[in-house]
Amino acid sequence: MPEAAYPKVHVIHENTEWVLPLRQAFAELGTPYAEWFLDEGLLDLGAPPPQGVFYNRMSASSHTRGHRFAAEYTGAVLAWLERHGRTVVNDGRALRLEISKVAQYEALAQHGIATPATIATVGRRHIRLAAEKLGFPLVLKHNRGGKGLGVRLFYSAAGLSEYLDGSEFEAPVDGITLVQRYVRAPEPFITRVEFVGGKFLYAVRVDTSQGFQLCPADQCQVELRPALKDVSPATAPSARFAILEGFDSPLIPRYERFLKANGIGIAGIEFVADEDGRAWTYDVNTNTNYNPDAEARAGKHGMRAIAKHLAGLLEGTHARAA
After folding, report:
1. What proportion of the chain, given as a percentage, has pLDDT over 90?
2. Fold of 101-114+184-300
3. What's the pTM?
């Protein structure tokens, strides 16, 4: 087979920094790959796509990096790939869920997975009306978000009004703000469950005491706010990300069925347990990243697992092409 036609793994993305660990994993395995940086471009619908496996890593937060229409462009590319029968990991259905939490919650509900009480709103007046209906405390978040950007916690109507009427109000890129009942956890932690190839990989405990910016990659880490004055050094938060050994939950098979039904091969799903121990799932991230420090402590390697999974799919493509 000519080299130009030899199948590769094609990585679709818009953030080079998030792909660096995957490049290293491909190099270790000797897997041929190419990167498709889908910010803008030209798509000839009359031409066939190249052979290979296509891994979609488009992010809901792409617009925050100046790539306003990257997700829409990716949607067009995925439709083209799927029409030609290419193997796509995290296909067009996955992209739809990545860029809409409303779509996520409705899809999760179909699999009996509980999500916090949520009202979708357009317009600040309707945010107030939704807050009156849900009561406080509550959380505002963008329907199309990422990394926890735009997430705000409010304990009173006065605090919410001050935010809505002030200059700090963040308008969501798609115009949809979610008003969500705050789930009070007995400790300031959430759990993030990672899946590769649609199967459970590991779970991570994430410390939320410093806020909701929860992207685990090195490139996402921001300067943490100063510790509260009533927190002593002896009780300061531990490492924000810690992989849980021996984690098990009845949610895992439900999550796996949900992923399979929605064309998602690789994802991180986040949930929080309330004071009664009930789990509430609130985010599905199909552009998952991994915390290198937590992985080093636990001897786990998420990007290596992804690379091996994609390499295995590529072997199947080689066989079909031959």
Report:
1. 84
2. D-amino Acid Aminotransferase; Chain A, domain 1 (3.30.470)
3. 0.89
